[in-house]
Amino acid sequence: MKKNLRFLSALFISKAAMFTQKLFGMNASYFPGKLAITLCPDFLSQIDKPETIISVTGTNGKTTVCNMIIDALMANGYDVLNNRAGSNINAGVASALISGSTLIGKAKKKIAVFEIDERSSKLIYPYVQPTYAVCTNLFRDSIHRNAHPEFIFRIISESLPKTSHLILNADDLISARLAPENTRTYFSIAPMNSDLPESINIINDMRICPNCHSALKYHYVRYHHIGNAYCPSCGFASPKSDYIAELNFKENSLSLTHASAAEHYPLITNSVFNAYNQITAITLLREFGLSAKQIQAAFSNLSIVESRYSYEKIGNTEVITHMAKGQNPIACSCVFDYVKKEPGKKEIILMLDDVFDRVASSEIMTWIYDADFEFLNDPSICQIIISGVRCEDYKLRLLLAGVAEEKLTCTPKEIDAPDYLTLSNTDKIFILHELYAAEEALRVRNKVTEQLKARRE
Hints:
This protein is α/β, with parallel strands linked by helices. Helix content is about 30%, strand content about 20%. It has a nine-stranded mixed beta sheet, with helices on both faces. A six-stranded mixed beta sheet has the order 12-13-17-14-15-16, sandwiched between helices. The chain has a two-stranded antiparallel ribbon with strand order 7-8.
């Protein structure tokens, strides 16, 4: 597209704003792009794009998948433009493109990887058309933002360019149906011993066939609607996978079968829901053109970022921080189930409030009744310390889940939570935190480790 004077002016001013913000140590991931779009509403359509664009969207896992893809590409010598330092809405993508362009809007890099907020798809995809469009999954999410997964499904499906090659989870019957006319590649996990005949979660948003509205039958369920299903009335079924993974948690490895050949990769997680993130990234990277050996080498040095998962062992006690993503019942349920199944005697510090914005975090609390707090009603969990301004709301939900009141302690201040740990023959301490409480969770973790070290002296 021919660049007009309005675009060039917006580009120059936004670059100046970006330089000024960086000069003063400020985060320049949102404002420059917002400024550019305000000054030139069609800014995203005029600025030149890298030759290959990879987009990653979905309810859960998109940041983790994006980081894996970027790190693997960079480990193999690619210079990658990305927005992982900041915003995943249209202004954030615009800021990334501004930082990766010349003064006349020419792209300086050939490859870009962008995390895309689901609701922002309609503001981004018409102008920034991905070569490969990844969707990790679609679940029920924040009530006041995302309503129902079918609402988000429609936004993404109608916004995706017809030319985009989709990378989709065959075990997710919601996201697997996106943009049916597009070229697509599916991945899945083979049947596991832990699979169930039907969902035990409060939520399963794929109980009914999307074609004939009959009740779906499941060959197996992994969690919520993730699994393999079919309709006995019309023949609708989970799609066949191009990449099928088999997990071996004992050996921390995964085997991925594609085109009748098995490839082996180091498994960087011990949970199924995070394994899906890794398989998503590998599938994309293979379709992009990296060889199995290139990905194996890159993944041998990868790990989940500390703000989402960390592990430390002090003496005989393991301290784990794990993002549970408050306001998201599916993410919380998966983490609660994971904690329940971990061996040993456990204490939990629950931090599901957004500690950085007390106003924004006052969302309607009905989401906690969609989350499976019942998983925390387990004999192996000896104490739950609930922190944050709405700690009493979570206490009520845990009482309704059957957790004994004597196991529950409330404290409005997150940093005070470690003071209530019993540390009585405790094998594992889990700090489960909201996305925007990651830094506070690490401070809490550091206080816990200091207490454990002091007890050993």
